[in-house]
């Protein structure tokens, strides 16, 4: 069962409220605390994925089914994190599980091509008119690295235009402090949703910029959608200069059968994919125009190498064929998008007047403790970070699991009742924490 909310705290001192909420969190999860301490003896920091780390320690989950999770201390949660958009199908979709069992019975690690990789490629090709040819990787990070490699080699220009606050994988971050882990490529940075400014940079550096990479909705940057006008300005400038426009749809391809690019009417030269597309198995993909992707055609002399032991692993290929071919089609994508739009409206209604609001598109959204509209990522203040943590801890206490930063990614098993539960919990948060919220002081 859910851990249950603590007694309402009326203290208007935000640091004191946070201390109380952290203490309540820790007291309810001794098994997670013990696991973390043990893991710290062998894992640097106690875990191996930075987004899952938070203090005082992260909750460890024991199992999941449908849209529910159970932690090692026995608490039950509705999973609104959705594995950061990779968990689109929930934790126990029977058709995907059956495909995985069948793949295991046929044998693992075959070191050969198989029928499923061609089937999955054809399904993706049919969904995205911009993808004339595609290749697979193990993650969205790898997909973006390979797409940038292809674009730079194709154009003969090394420069890359990217956007401040953007995220294209574990070594392609454009947030303050991430420089140490970002690949040392010749990046030029522009402001998100500033079409004229970005287009001017592309034209000014036309002799050096070979690739433009952008998310049609920033995911890690706070679920901030791009305007159609912004993307169209990039499309026109890239076409004019011969740069390759890459739309990173690793997260937002779920927003229609043909991704957010189809909703916005923008056709890129290349598209990168990942997250949910292999039914919850590890996956990434990059594809686009046939002439660009022909660089990887082994039938051609001098083709570019593209390695990866698990690029076509039997689990991802088999699950992906069922996920895209049987479970998540056009009608399911449309229904999920509409459900997310309705939830975001309900959350903003629940938070009205509090200074908290949610941005996003379709089934992905994120909270912000500052006025809108928000056109681009920003550096959070210390107070905003504290409020975001307080929201996370309060919702955890109510049996609602979100990303620590507050991001929500709906899965197909989530229905109206679960969305109503979340909206009611946000309303209670705004009432009980009114003294520290920016809109009600």
Give a nutshell description of this structure.
This protein is α/β, with parallel strands linked by helices and 441 residues long. The protein is built from 13 helices and 16 strands.
Uncertain residue segments: 1-11
> What distance separates the N and C termini?
35 Å
Arithmetic mean of pLDDT: 96
How much beta, percentage-wise?
A: 5-15%
| Global morphology | globular
| Continuous helix count | 13
**How many distinct beta strands?**
16
Major beta-sheet overview: 7 strands, mixed
Q: Can you list the strand order of the major beta sheet?
A: 4-12-11-10-7-5-6
Q: Secondary-structure element order, as H and E? A: HHEEEHHEHEEHEEEHEHEEHHHEEHEEH
What is the radius of gyration?
22 Å
Percentage of residues assigned to helices: 25-40%
Q: Please identify the structural class as seen in this structure.
A: alpha/beta
Question: Can you lay out the helices and strands and say which pair or pack?
Answer:
Elements: H1 14-27, H2 30-39, E1 61-65, E2 68-71, E3 76-79, H3 94-106, H4 115-127, E4 133-137, H5 140-155, E5 159-163, E6 187-190, H6 195-204, E7 209-214, E8 217-218, E9 224-225, H7 228-241, E10 244-248, H8 259-264, E11 270-274, E12 284-288, H9 290-293, H10 314-327, H11 330-350, E13 357-361, E14 364-368, H12 382-397, E15 400-401, E16 408-409, H13 416-432
Structure description:
- By secondary structure, the chain is an alpha/beta fold.
- 38% of the residues lie in helices and 15% in strands.
- The protein has 13 helices and 16 strands.
- The strands form 4 sheets. The chain has a 7-stranded mixed beta sheet with strand order 4-12-11-10-7-5-6, sandwiched between helices. Strands 1-2-3-15 form a 4-stranded mixed beta sheet.
- Strand 8 and strand 9 form a beta hairpin.
- Helix 1 runs parallel beside helix 12 and helix 11 packs parallel to helix 13.
- The chain starts with 13 loop residues before the first helix and ends in a 9-residue tail after the last helix.
């Amino acid at each position: 069962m859910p851990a249950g909310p603590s007694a309402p705290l009326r203290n208007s001192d935000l640091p004191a409220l946070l201390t109380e909420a952290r203490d309540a969190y820790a007291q309810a999860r001794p098994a997670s605390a013990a696991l973390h301490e043990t893991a710290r003896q062998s894992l640097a920091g106690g875990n191996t994925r930075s987004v899952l780390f938070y203090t005082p320690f992260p909750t460890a989950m024991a199992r999941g089914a449908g849209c529910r999770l159970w932690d090692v201390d026995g608490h039950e949660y509705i999973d609104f994190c959705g594995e950061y958009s990779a968990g689109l199908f929930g934790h126990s979709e029977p058709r995907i599980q059956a495909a995985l069992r069948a793949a295991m019975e046929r044998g693992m690690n075959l070191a050969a091509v198989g029928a499923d990789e061609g089937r999955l490629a054809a399904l993706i090709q049919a969904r995205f008119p911009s993808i004339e040819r595609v290749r697979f990787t193990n993650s969205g990070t790898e997909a973006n690295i390979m797409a940038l490699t292809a674009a730079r080699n194709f154009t003969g220009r090394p420069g890359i235009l990217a956007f401040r606050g953007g995220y294209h994988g574990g070594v392609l971050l454009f947030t303050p402090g991430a420089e140490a882990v970002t690949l040392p490529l010749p990046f030029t940075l522009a402001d998100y949703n500033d079409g004229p400014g970005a287009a001017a940079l592309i034209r000014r550096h036309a002799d050096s910029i070979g690739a433009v990479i952008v998310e049609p909705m920033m995911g890690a940057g706070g679920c901030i959608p791009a305007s159609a006008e912004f993307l169209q300005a990039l499309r026109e400038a890239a076409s004019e200069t011969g740069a390759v426009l890459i739309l990173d749809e690793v997260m937002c391809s779920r927003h229609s059968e043909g991704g957010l690019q189809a909703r916005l009417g923008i056709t890129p030269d290349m598209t990168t994919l990942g997250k949910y597309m292999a039914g919850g198995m590890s996956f990434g993909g990059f594809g686009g125009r046939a002439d660009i992707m022909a660089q990887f055609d082994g039938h051609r002399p001098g083709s570019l190498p593209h390695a990866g032991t698990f690029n076509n692993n039997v689990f991802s290929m088999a699950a992906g064929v069922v996920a895209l071919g049987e479970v998540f089609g056009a009608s399911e994508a449309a229904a999920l998008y509409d459900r997310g739009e309705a939830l975001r409206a309900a959350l903003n209604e629940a938070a009205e007047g509090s200074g908290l609001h949610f941005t996003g598109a379709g089934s992905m959204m994120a909270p912000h403790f500052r006025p809108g509209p928000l056109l681009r990522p920003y550096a959070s203040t210390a107070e905003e970070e504290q409020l975001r943590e307080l929201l996370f801890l309060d919702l955890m206490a109510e049996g609602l699991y979100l990303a620590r930063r507050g991001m929500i990614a709906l899965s197909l098993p989530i229905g109206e009742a679960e969305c109503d539960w979340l909206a009611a919990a946000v309303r209670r948060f705004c009432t009980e924490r009114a003294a520290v919220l920016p809109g009600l002081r």
